């Protein structure tokens, strides 16, 4: 499989998942995107079409977080959870973005749970 096919397959999986998952103001959608170097997490209110919070883990040259990419993903989950708790959000709907629930995606989910958010 080439990269174009992999990307299209992930986008199709994500579109299928998105028909079921809808975020609201009280229970936003926690959307995760990963590239080879970075992890991006957003809390999205789909009813109003607004992003409530966004956070990202940059490459180790730009980021203050240290460790493996998986450890950084856990930390970014905790950071997003703290931001959400400060505004009064306690529950989210987790959107894995068409990726397998494995590795950095699972680490972000674990970080969100460790920060006190419920799925």
Can you offer a commentary on this structure?
By secondary structure, this protein is an alpha+beta fold. It has a single domain, classed as 2-Layer Sandwich (Nucleotidyltransferase, domain 5). 39% of the residues lie in helices and 20% in strands. It is built from three helices and four strands; from the N terminus they run αβββαβα. It has a four-stranded mixed β-sheet with strand order 3-2-1-4, with helices on one face. A hairpin with a 4-residue loop joins β1 (29-34) and β2 (39-45). α2 (69-87) packs parallel to α3. It is globular. The termini are far apart. The relative contact order is 0.20. The model has no long low-confidence stretch (mean pLDDT 89).
Task: Describe the secondary-structure layout.
Blueprint: H1 3-18, E1 29-34, E2 39-45, E3 50-57, H2 69-87, E4 93-95, H3 104-114
Parallel strand pairs: 1-4
Antiparallel strand pairs: 1-2, 2-3
| Annotated CATH topology | Nucleotidyltransferase, domain 5
- How much beta, percentage-wise? 15-25%
Count of β-strands: 4
The separation of the N and C termini measures: 34 Å
Low-confidence stretches: none
Structural class: alpha+beta
Mean pLDDT: 89
CATH second-level architecture: 2-Layer Sandwich
CATH class annotation: Alpha Beta
Count of DSSP-assigned helices: 3
Whole-angstrom Rg: 14 Å
Biggest sheet features: 4 strands, mixed
Shape: globular
Helix and strand element order: HEEEHEH
Q: What count of structural domains?
A: 1
GO biological process, one term: translation
InterPro entries: Ribosomal_L18 (IPR057268), Ribosomal_uL18_bac-type (IPR004389), Ribosomal_uL18_bac/plant/anim (IPR005484)
Family: Belongs to the universal ribosomal protein uL18 family.
GO molecular function: 5S rRNA binding; structural constituent of ribosome
